[in-house]
Amino acid sequence: MASNITPLLTTERLHLVQLPPDAAWRVLAYHEANREHFDPVSPDRPANFFSVTYWRTRLAQDREDFRYDVSLRLFLLPRDEPLGSAPIIGNVSLTQIRRGPLQSADLGYALDHRYEGKGYMTEALRALCDYAFGVMRLHRLHANHLPENLKSAAVLERLGFAVEGYARSFLRIDGRWRDHVLTARIAPETAEGAR
């Protein structure tokens, strides 16, 4: 399987990779290990979310979505372990990629609870933002978080995201509509008017 995995991005401690469909069991293990951690902040999931079949299909779709410039989902693997067997410690994504006059995307991310507080998410998102603004030539990234999620707010602030608003009843999470803080970051050159 390792031959099918090529990091899209590499940081000091991480490889950010698209995983092939035959890595579905690894993605499932990551989600099962974090079920209690992710459930309170995740939208409702499909009935078969916790199955290898779901993830095999989803990973194949992720590759197609990236190929067609619709979205990009990457998994975080420790750089000091073999690509074919390293545990998944998080994921990051750019979804709802909009071209034309908008050139924007929504930023999403999650980290295994056992790796929190070590700067991994800031490291991964910094690389993804650089890629989004550089290689992908996006102009604007949006990221939203629950008002009480102070860890997420701190990560976004470190990365230069600015609060732009507050959306009431924005997203259905854990069976109820939840408010969200809306943040965004503009490509550095664009912020100065050079792009």
Automatic annotation (TrEMBL):
Entry-linked Pfam families: Acetyltransf_3
Ranges where the N-acetyltransferase domain occurs: 28-188
Example of a GO cellular component annotation carried by this entry: cytoplasm
Alphabetized UniProt keyword annotations: Acyltransferase, Transferase
SUPFAM superfamilies in UniProt: Acyl-CoA N-acyltransferases (Nat)
InterPro entries per UniProt: Acyl_CoA_acyltransferase, GNAT_dom, N-acetyltransferase
Family: Belongs to the acetyltransferase family. RimJ subfamily.
Protein name: GNAT family N-acetyltransferase
Taxon lineage: Bacteria, Pseudomonadati, Myxococcota, Myxococcia, Myxococcales
